[in-house]
Amino acid sequence: MTSLSTKSSSLSSVSAGRKAKDRAAKVFVYAAFALAIIPLVSVLWTVISNGAKRFDGVFLTHSMNGLASKDAGGGAYHAIIGTLEQVGLTALISVPLGVLTAIYLVEYARGGRLGRTISFFVDVMTGIPSIVSGLFVLAFWLLALGMDFSGFAGALSLTILMLPTVVRATEEMLKLVPGDLKEAAYALGVPRWRTIMFVVLPTALPGIVSGVMLAVARVMGETAPLLLTIFITKAINTDPFSGAQGSLPTFIWDQSTDPNANAVDRAWAGALVLILLIMLLNLAARLVAWLRRPSAR
Amino acid sequence: MTSETPAALAKAAERPRPALSMSTGRAGDRIFAGLSRGSGLVILAIMAAIAVFLVWKAIPALQDDKANFLTSQEWNPDGAPAKFGIAQLVFGTLMTSVLALVMAVPVAVGIALFITYYAPRRLAGVMAYLVDLLAAVPSIVYGLWGLNFLVTKMTGVSGFLNSYFGWIPLFGGSETGGRTILTAAIVLAIMILPIISAITREVFVQVPHAHVEAALALGATRWEMIRMSVLPFGRSGMVSAAMLGLGRALGETIAVAMVLSTTAGIDWHILKDGGNTFAANIANTFAMSGPTGRSALIASGLVLFVITLLVNVGARAVVARRKEFS
User: Fold this and answer.
1) Where is the ABC transmembrane type-1 domain (chain A) (predicted)?
2) N or C: lower Cβ tally within 10 Å for chain B?
3) Residue A24 CB-half CA count within 13 A
């Protein structure tokens, strides 16, 4: 395409006006790309340069317990633990549910009415604003069932955000599994569930793993639902099932709403840790997909 | 949620289903089919529960409300008497999201065109990845960046726009600042850019080669080829991408909550500090809310949920219609 179009403009029968329009369009699309890259670079640069100030051993190994926000020192240890536990619990709930739902949609429903209904509501779920998922857990888990703020409540709200991503990613991967493989298994008399478990899933596994990693990376940065479900604490709480728990996003929120320079520095360092975790997951997902790509096998 | 699984499982296992007719009837097959079906049903149950519990927990506050829920600009649910309404929130949410959309769509379409038709083939993949990275940055980080970096820059921009373009009603007013609706809209625009450009790109890649080559063979310049074959083909795709972006922007919470300095009341001057949105209001006032306050926030969240639902379903409908025609 590209080579064709350059030739056509060199035929020299193109009038000046048309040339100018073509040039203008070219400038516009280049500028559009640059406009997207500027904020990306700016965000990463400010996070790295401001976050490096407090990105040290103390920050990674200490909580904020007993410290006022104006004090120097302190760290995000409680928040890192909280985030890892909450995200782990979220994955523990939503991966089996999501993968099984995808299996139902691809292998069993085959365009039936229930399948189409579930598929529609998975789409609806994708569009749920994160704050609404937090409000739901607040209404259901905390108000209706009378439970307390806890890391698990946060995980429940994150599950609602992660589930549809897992279902869609798994569905795409399952659809790519060649029918021949399944038919070969059926022809050998392998029961259907064993075919799915030991032929279909292993074939689709790298894709599912990288999809799950991306989904985890996405929910890791969610703040809004956590504000309503885990509340805010300065102390280390390793038990996600009872009491308020910290998390990196709420830690950043808490520290940044304080006008104090020490607190703002901690917020930037927290943002740096969060971005590093997310980028690591993103890279790992890419790596898994690349290492196990079909042409490499 | 977990308590529903066994019930759903039992129900699925009891009745033979047409979907299971290919099953060999073995126990393992029945259990596995039941499990996967049950998971699907759990998703339906969650969606139903979201609707039911939000409505249920919103009702008490709505009954206590002494002001008109739809038209009041006040938000004081814990006062005596409780008075709150969503008029200001609707205004702020729509204003920020629509402004964000107006800024993001042309840029996103430009990026999609750049990556599919202008960028060197080898670099296109890397460039697409860079744009997608914008989506990987969490909203709290955009909020932090917006509050500590963009706001300081926008104070000057607001002043400039106000003194030179003050004759445009939106840019008018006597005060300008950095923590404005305009700044919030810019942050939102950056956040919805990757999703709009990713979907648009997917549509542009599907443009039939024959259309592209026919246009070029007729002597069209690259821009004329894009205008004649790519844009018409991708129109419905762009519309649905924009609507999905709008849905994202409407529900975005933390970045907006951090950037805006919330003040009460509807103000059309987008260069002035202030404004509020559904999501930002929930995040900002939740910690200090009493029982009625929480219930009122749930009511406002329900309205937000319905609005985003309509926008998203609309976007899907546009996609579905396009599939029928092509």
Assistant:
1) 80-285
2) C
3) 7
